[in-house]
Amino acid sequence: xxxxxxxxxxxxxxxxxxxxxLIGPTSYDRILSAxxxxxxxxxxIALIGFVFGRPDFLDIAIAYALINFxxxxxxxxxxxxxxxxxxxxxxxxxxxxxxDAGGAP
Length: 105
What we know:
This protein is mainly α and 105 residues long. The protein has helices spanning 2-23, 27-51, 56-81. The chain is elongated.
């Protein structure tokens, strides 16, 4: 009974996350909602593995979690830089030349 309630709660949370992914006001909301959906999917796979006594489902859930994490990071980087190959020079702070360091003119 408790496992059925957990499965129903996960399915409800997944449905709400899917709704948020469809009507999210920004692309970041949609990506984070998709990440949340993926996390709940991992929990659901682990729950199904526990219910049916199949511990190998946990390996599948861990692999899916890794794919979900990498895809979320890639999408966030793509939406921020509009490319997956953003150079590191854009990420580094500008170098100080010392001309405006408050010394003598």
